[in-house]
Amino acid sequence: MDLILWRHAEAQDAAELVIEDEQRALTPRGEKQASRMAAWLDRQLPEGVRVLCSPAVRTEQTAQALDRKYKLRAELLPDGSVQDLLDLVQWPVSRVPVLVVGHQPTLGRAVAQLLKLSEPECSVRKGSVWWLRHRMRGDEPQIVLLTVQTPELL
Q1: How many CA atoms lie within 13 A of 28 on its CB side?
Q2: Phi first, then psi: what are they for 48, rounded to 5°?
Q3: CATH number of the domain that 97 lies in?
Q4: Is residue 154 part of a domain?
Q5: Are 93 and 118 in contact (CB under 8 A)?
Q6: Which of 104, 141, 153, 142 has its CA nearest to residue 5?
Q7: In-domain check, residue 143
Q8: What is the pLDDT of residue 13?
Q9: Which domain holds residue 103?
Q10: Is 6 a domain residue?
Q11: Which Gene3D superfamilies does this chain map to (predicted)?
Q12: What are the 10-residue block averages of pLDDT along the chain, 154 residues in total?
């Protein structure tokens, strides 16, 4: 199973706004980041990929840059847990690849847990993609990190 984790692009600063966190929108820079990453993803994503997205404005705007169908899922809001995310995507048994557009720290915690890092959380930059694959080698399950991409390097 392939699990592609895409953190939302740069958003408005919460400290400067008088709106709910989930209502923060992308900045002009964030819109460019999302567009750049979406173009790369569009060329790389396998057929039949499911796209799941947090219903926060900034994540939905990030997902919209990909111009594919997606489903909003409350489990992916900023206060969601790693277990909620893994249950939602049916890790590691799903037969289809899944792209999750979500938030830090949940994405970073998922990366750390899946890769069995010693730290409880990995830093996932805004707008970046972490692509992981679950596979079997003989009787042993393995997690392979296929790529990490940031919009600045595309």
Answers
A1: 0
A2: 80, 10
A3: 3.40.50.1240
A4: no
A5: no
A6: 104
A7: yes
A8: 87
A9: 2-149
A10: yes
A11: Phosphoglycerate mutase-like
A12: 98 80 95 98 96 98 97 96 98 97 97 96 97 95 97 93
